[in-house]
Design brief:
By secondary structure, the chain is of the alpha+beta class. Helix content is 59%, strand content 12%.
Length: 226
C-alpha cells in the first residue's frame, strides 16, 4: 500500500512539472500578461509539499521492508536453529541405540537352539511313552534354528506320511520353534507365530520340502519324499 502511494505521488509530481512547462509555454505563445506558474510561489510550495510527502512515504516503505527482512531473517535463523537441534537429538539417539547392549534385533541362536532341542526331546519322550499327542516328534531328528531360517532333519519314517500328515508335523515344528524363541526373546508375540517361520526339511543332505515363499504355514513337498 505504501509503495502504491509513493508511485501515485511521483506521478503527481511529474505531472505537475509537465503541466507547469506546458502552461507557461502556451501562456508565452499567446502573449498573455498572466504571471507564469514558475514564478508563482504557491506552485513551488505545492511542489515542495509533494517532495516532503514523498520523502515520508519512502521512509516508511524502507522501514517496513527492513522490518520484514529482519522478521524473515529471524524466522530463517529460528528454522535453522531448530533443524540443528533436531539433527543433534537424532544423532544422540542413534549413538545411545548403538551403545545399548540390550538393543539386538536378532535372537541368540545358541540359546534358542538349546530351548528348541529341550522341547523336542521332551515331546519325543512323551511320544515314546505312548502319548499320541506328541507322535509328530518321532518323525524328527533335529531342529536347528538360525536367524536366516530353520532347518529340520527328519527320520526315514517321514517319507511314509501323506502330504497332509507332513503339513501337520510341520505345523507342530512351528509351535516348537516359536516356544523356543519366546524363551529367549522377551519381545516375541503371538502374531510372530501367526506369521510363522520359514522351515526347510532335510533327510541328511536330501531336500525333502520347505515352507512356501509367501506363506510360511503352507509347504512344498518334493515327490522324491513321498
Amino acid at each position: 500500500m505504501i509503495t502504491f502511494i509513493a508511485v501515485v505521488l511521483d506521478f503527481c509530481l511529474t505531472g505537475s512539472i509537465i503541466y507547469m512547462l506546458y502552461h507557461d509555454y502556451k501562456l508565452k505563445k499567446s502573449g498573455s500578461t498572466e504571471k507564469p506558474l514558475k514564478k508563482k510561489w504557491q506552485y513551488w510550495v505545492s511542489i515542495f509539499a509533494l517532495f516532503c510527502v514523498m520523502g515520508v512515504v519512502v521512509s516508511f516503505d524502507n522501514t517496513d521492508n527492513t522490518a520484514q527482512n529482519e522478521n524473515s531473517s529471524d524466522v530463517a535463523k529460528s528454522k535453522r536453529k531448530k533443524k540443528r537441534q533436531i539433527a543433534t537429538y537424532k544423532k544422540a539417539t542413534r549413538a545411545d541405540d548403538d551403545n545399548d547392549p540390550e538393543d539386538d534385533s536378532e535372537v541368540d541362536a545358541n540359546e534358542a537352539n538349546a530351548n528348541i532341542t529341550m522341547l523336542l526331546k521332551d515331546d519325543q519322550k512323551d511320544a515314546s511313552n505312548g502319548n499320541e499327542k506328541f507322535a509328530y516328534a518321532l518323525y524328527l531328528k533335529k531342529i536347528k534354528y538360525s536367524n536366516d531360517g530353520i532347518e529340520v532333519q527328519v527320520t526315514n519314517d517321514f517319507f511314509n506320511l501323506s502330504n497332509d500328515e507332513k503339513d501337520t508335523v510341520a505345523e507342530r515344528v512351528q509351535g516348537v520353534v516359536g516356544a523356543g524363541i519366546s524363551m529367549v526373546d522377551s519381545d516375541y508375540e503371538p502374531k510372530d507365530d501367526q506369521q510363522g517361520h520359514h522351515l526347510s526339511f532335510y533327510y541328511g543332505k536330501i531336500a525333502v520340502g520347505h515352507s512356501k515363499m509367501l506363506d510360511s504355514h503352507k509347504y512344498k513337498w518334493y515327490k522324491s519324499a513321498n
